[in-house]
Amino acid sequence: MGEGCRRRALPLPGRGRILAGEPKVSPEHEVRQVRELTTALMRRVPDSYEPFYGARGIAIDLQTARAQHAAYADALRAAGVRVHLLDADEAWPDCVFVEDPAVVVPPRALIGRLAAHREGEPPPVQAALREWHETVALDGGARLEGGDVLHVEDTTYVGLTARTNARGADALRDFLAPAGRRVVAVRVPNYLHLKTAASYLGNGTLLAVPDFAGVKAFQVDQVIHTDAAEPVAANCLRVNGDLLVVAGNPRTEPRLRAFAERHGVRVVPLEISEFQKGDGSLTCLSTLW
Ligand code: CIR
């Protein structure tokens, strides 16, 4: 990465100080700072997660799911984040995927409107977020899920998917305007959410599945592709000096380790099999700020 690739620190509005957490980077690879994340909201796994998927022919092991959830929370803590655990709501089996009901950019949080089978999830999340943030509602026709919102430096990309519509993208644009953030909408035809197809590793680097055409819309220095046979690896979570990656992707992991080595980032593989069965991945298990 050369001189022309340097960027200023991630200018997301927030209270956190800026970290320059890349001690292993040599001088010619300029330190690229990342905004410190201090806090995560997670939501417990409801008992109903198992029968909900069981009725669809998908066998969830609830005990394993909870162990994976706990390991994920520990990984966030190890990355320096304070984790707040919200109670599950048995009426809404997917409520563990707490990324989707809100987009938090301190000092405000935009409350999403979710797919019908998840429509009851936002109110308790909104109530919890009010402890830290002013919350903002969507207008009537807007639909927006947090899995479609990807912050990359001073731009926020929003996926137009089966879950997020143009009005939701417009609402996000309005919400982020006071923070000075640009919003770019990207069509994501074949994946559940934008962050199913791509995620931001920090340091100017996007990770994406190889068949994601929308990658052209991203202003980044570098794109790393997952192996074509490992699309689930595309959802990583950079938290301060750590990069949480989905375990069990042996062809993609060396590419992520090479990135991490170059930038002084620690790779933390996490098993999330029981959440992948519910179409979830790493980012969806928390809302971070
Ligand atoms: C759903 O259908 O919405 C859930 N089963 C999966 C949500 C995953 N969310 C995410 O990746 N942000």
Write the layout of secondary structure elements.
Blueprint: E1 18-19, E2 34-35, E3 39-43, H1 49-54, H2 62-78, E4 82-86, E5 102-105, E6 108-111, H3 122-129, E7 134-136, E8 149-152, E9 155-160, H4 166-176, E10 182-187, H5 194-197, E11 198-202, E12 205-208, E13 222-225, E14 237-239, E15 242-246, H6 253-263, E16 266-270, H7 273-276, E17 287-288
Parallel strand pairs: 3-4, 6-7, 9-10, 12-13, 15-16
Antiparallel strand pairs: 1-2, 3-17, 5-6, 8-9, 11-12, 14-15
The structure holds citrulline (CIR).
Write up what this structure looks like.
The protein is of the alpha/beta class. It has a single domain, classed as L-arginine/glycine Amidinotransferase, Chain A (5-stranded Propeller). 21% of the residues lie in helices and 24% in strands. The protein has seven helices and 17 strands. It has helices at 49-54, 62-78, 122-129, 166-176, 194-197, 253-263, 273-276; strands spanning 18-19, 34-35, 39-43, 82-86, 102-105, 108-111, 134-136, 149-152, 155-160, 182-187, 198-202, 205-208, 222-225, 237-239, 242-246, 266-270, 287-288. The strands form six sheets. Strands 4-3-17 form a three-stranded mixed beta sheet, sandwiched between helices. The chain starts with 17 loop residues before the first strand and ends with a strand. Residues 1-33 have low confidence and may be disordered. Bound molecules: citrulline. Residues 94, 97, 99-100, 115, 118, 147, 193, 278-281, 283-284 line the site of citrulline.
